[in-house]
Design goal:
The structure holds two protein chains of two kinds. By secondary structure, chain A is an all-alpha fold. Chain A has three domains: 84 residues, no CATH class; 32 residues; 98 residues, Helix Hairpins. Helix content of chain A is 53%, strand content 1%. Chain B has a domain of 181 residues: Cytochrome Bc1 Complex, Chain C (Up-down Bundle), CATH 1.20.810.10. Chain B has twelve helices and one strand. In chain B, helix 6 packs antiparallel against helix 8 and helix 8 runs antiparallel to helix 9. Chain B is flat and about 100 Å long. The model of chain B has no long low-confidence stretch (mean pLDDT 91). Classes of the chains: A mainly alpha, B mainly alpha. Chains A and B meet through strand 1, helix 5, helix 6, helix 7 and helix 8 of A and helix 4, strand 1, helix 6, helix 7 and helix 8 of B.
């Protein structure tokens, strides 16, 4: 048998106590209770009484008019159990408690979701607007570079690749061009593509992924530092310079 | 007896309302705007209309009707993927504008850019936006990749979408690099010279790769035409296909990852 939850037992006990107390208090008044019960409107009592007397007249049954009052007061008027009440004066009985999961078992875990409109679209709209505004005002105040017409016979010193390739150009100063230009970036790109197949750890919690996070951070920092050096610390002849001493050799 | 004559002419407001009702009730109007559209018959906020807004809009139905609650927090995605896509659209729009004033010939390219900046209305502004937007897109795409990695969002079932993402990052770099040559100034030409020299060291078929990319042994007018076509047609075409797969897979793989 299913165990009855404690709070329901408590509630039943409280109701039982209350009914007992009410019965004690209402017992003396129960003889003339029917007409004076404040909880039932007078006209309803009158109507009920009229109906009862009609039934009485038809079938010659015992007077039940007094019983209405007794029932409402939840107290037996003549020592008996009121009509429609269970043991102990309750009008409802707890048959059984069916716990969720004992009959139906829901496999899918409910996910806390919100409507895309307005919750996501509003944020996206603001982000797009902010991005446009930033780009607009930046473009008003900062002009894109346009140097002299291209001249194949005049090599600028230094000649630099676009900033995102400056890490590779920096590697060129240390390694053979094939290693710097093809092998290392090739390996890096393949490692990146294969990352989800190498990383077998199923968790996405940061505390479970300290190794993966460290490796990636080292990888990203490696390129970031190379790009920084290539961008700001390389001057004429791609020699090492300090931008605050020798000036900036960098165009976007 | 004095007869009260009511003014039979409706007020301007009544006439306007009647016209609006007539237009919004017409078959043509209802055939253009699907249910839930704010243009159809006004928008009242209800769960049904919130769903309709997404389902019945060609733009918004990239999104599902509902998303996980943690996913709409700006601090989770920082909007980086969405902003990369938005910047791509912005670059397409500004790029189309620039195409009206640009000829990919060694003799004309630099002059076209120069006169675009000085004698075309908003020419300088649009060129600036295109340039800075391109750099910003490289940055946001890169940061998006870092964000996805640090959230472990590439794990099953999203492994292949990560691979597509790496392809998109590479394509973004190539788009930016091909665009770099087009102004045909000293900066463009020599940056590309450095870059393509590196490609020439590809083992086995290095010099062939370089020859195909440059349209010759040296950077010249053919290179400019090639990179122009790559920049405005081929690479955008390819990247749009990969973006479509990328966005489609995001939904098919169960929406955005997490929560952590």
């Amino acid at each position: 048998m299913t165990e009855i939850p404690e709070h329901l037992l408590k509630r039943a006990q409280a109701a039982r106590d209350k009914a007992a107390a009410d019965a004690g208090a209402a017992a003396p008044a129960s003889s003339d209770a029917p007409a004076s019960d404040p909880r039932i409107p007078a006209h309803l009592l009158e109507r009920s009484k009229a109906a009862k007397t009609r039934v009485e007249g038809d079938a010659g049954a015992v007077a039940v008019a007094e019983k209405v009052g007794a029932l409402v007061a939840a107290a037996p008027s003549s020592g008996g159990i009121p009509v429609g009440a269970g043991p102990g004066g309750h009008t409802q009985r707890l048959l059984t408690v069916v716990k969720s999961g004992s009959i139906q078992d829901v496999k899918a875990i409910p996910v806390d979701k919100v409507h895309t409109w307005p919750h996501l679209l509003a944020a996206e709209f603001v982000a797009a607007l902010a991005c446009t505004a930033f780009l607009f005002f930046f473009s008003i105040f900062v002009n894109a570079p346009l140097l002299q017409l291209a001249n194949p016979n005049q090599t600028p010193n230094p000649s630099k690749a676009p900033w995102y390739f400056l890490g590779l150009q920096e590697l060129l100063t240390m390694f053979h061009p094939m290693v710097a230009g093809v092998t290392i970036p090739g390996i890096a790109l393949f490692a990146l593509i294969l990352a989800p197949y190498i990383d077998k750890n199923p968790s996405n919690k940061p505390e479970d992924r300290k190794f993966a996070t460290s490796i990636m951070t080292v990888h990203l920092m490696f390129w970031a530092v190379l790009v920084m050096i290539g961008s700001f610390f390389r001057g004429p002849g791609f020699n090492f310079v300090f931008p605050w001493r020798d000036g900036l050799y960098f165009e976007l | 007896m004095a007869k009260v004559i009511e003014d039979p002419r409706p007020t301007a407001k009544e006439r306007l309302n009647k016209t609006v009702d007539g237009v919004q009730g017409s078959q043509v109007w209802n055939s253009i705007f699907r249910p839930g559209s704010i243009f159809r018959k006004g928008y009242t906020d209800s769960p049904r209309n919130r769903s309709y807004v997404i389902m019945n809009s060609v733009l918004y139905h990239l999104h599902p009707v509902k998303v996980k609650r943690h996913a709409v927090k700006v601090s989770y995605t920082l909007c980086l993927g969405g902003l990369s896509f938005f910047l791509f659209i912005l670059l397409t729009v500004t790029g189309i504008f620039l195409m009206f004033f640009y000829r990919p010939e060694a003799t004309a390219a630099w002059n076209d850019i120069s006169s675009l900046q000085t004698s075309v209305a908003f020419g300088l502004l649009v060129r600036n936006m295109h340039r800075w937007g391109a750099h910003l897109m490289v940055l946001t795409t890169f940061l998006h990749m870092a964000r996805v990695f640090y959230h472990g969002a590439y794990k099953a079932p999203r492994e292949f979408n990560w691979v597509i993402g790496v392809v998109l990052l590479t394509l973004t770099l190539l788009l930016s690099f091909t665009g770099y040559l087009l102004p045909w100034d000293q900066l463009a030409m020599w940056a590309v010279a450095v870059g393509t020299n590196m490609m020439g060291y590809t083992p086995v078929f290095g010099s062939q790769v370089r020859f195909v990319l440059l349209g010759g042994v040296e950077i010249g007018s053919e290179t400019l035409l090639r990179w122009y076509v790559l920049h405005v047609l081929l690479l955008p075409f390819v990247i749009v296909i990969f973006m479509a797969i990328h966005f489609w897979r995001v939904r098919k793989d169960g929406g955005i990852s997490g929560p952590l």
